[in-house]
Amino acid sequence: MSHEQYLALDLIARLASRFGPTSRIAKELPGWLEYLTEVECPERPRTRPGAIWWEKIRELVRSLVPCAGGGEGEIVQGNAALLGDHFGLSPVETSMLTFVALYKIFDTFEHVVDGALETKEVTVPLLLSWFCLAPEAEIRAAMRASSRLVSSGLVQRNSGGRYHHMPFDLSDRLTFALLAEVGNIPNLIALMFPCAGAPEAEWQDFEGLGRDADLMHDLVSKALANSTPGVNILLYGPPGTGKTEFAKVLARKVGAVLRAVGETGDEGGEPARHERLVELSIASRMLGQRSDTVLLFDEMEDLFGVRGSFLSREMSKVHFNRILESNPGDLDHKLGRCLRSCLPAPDELFGSDAIAVGKGSIADMATPGGATFYRHSGCSLDRSGRKA
What is the pTM of this model? Predict the structure, then answer.
């Protein structure tokens, strides 16, 4: 028997032990057993169900709950434990993450949870309290938006509606990672946030940036050496001017691993704005303590949508800023800063030294702990530090 089937049957056993023969749970529970296994349950009396019939069902359930037997459910539970430890989740929050993952991944577990919720005799917090072996008050506290589990970005809130029994969801990318036999956090990170492709250009190919390139090199080098959070660089300019390539070259120059964030969607295609935002949120927190990693977040402006489109609501920049500013306490927002460097059109690149240094609003490249965005102050500085 697989681990995920064992967990579903264990949940059924808990429900059977807590409800009587006249409950809605008792009416539906035999059907869940027959859905999960090949057993045939005793027929429910046509008259008022009695204690004898219900005790036979309970005994049958108990006999079907052996020890866990491996399978994908065990892999999911192990990877959830790795993430919980890495993000500093409590044991209860880690168990909640496991519960949401099992619900998302396995039809058998989802079938039992949905069936129980449809009886209106149990709630999600109550089921979680049984699964996590924790008081319901602690579960409700961990479900709040301010909790570490939710603020980590590992789970997202469902918008509700009749087809959403579970208030939480996981991104497809995280779901895929939870099912992989990775064994440790570094392998899980590599799976979720692959390294950006190697650059084809060399450092000297960007000599047209002059001292500006050296300034960016020094900024990133010192930020990584000192584990300074809040350091972001925005490379902006027309298409084809080498912004992404320079980011790759710069990362290689400072000896950092450049990890691409939001390059593809959860299914390998074009990513949606929501997918990119979720991935950036998780990456910022997952890699925030590393001093050898730089995040590449290309084409950031597409996060804000197309003004006036009826197909997608334009995202609020203020809301976006606040989400990133709500990173865990290990980020010092007062240290946040952004270097904006303009790469002109190819025929103007060499010999040009245009640069604006100051607080900015969007970053294409950042140290992981520095994924904090700031509203552009309207004040730019020249190289001497004077207002331009």
Answer: 0.73
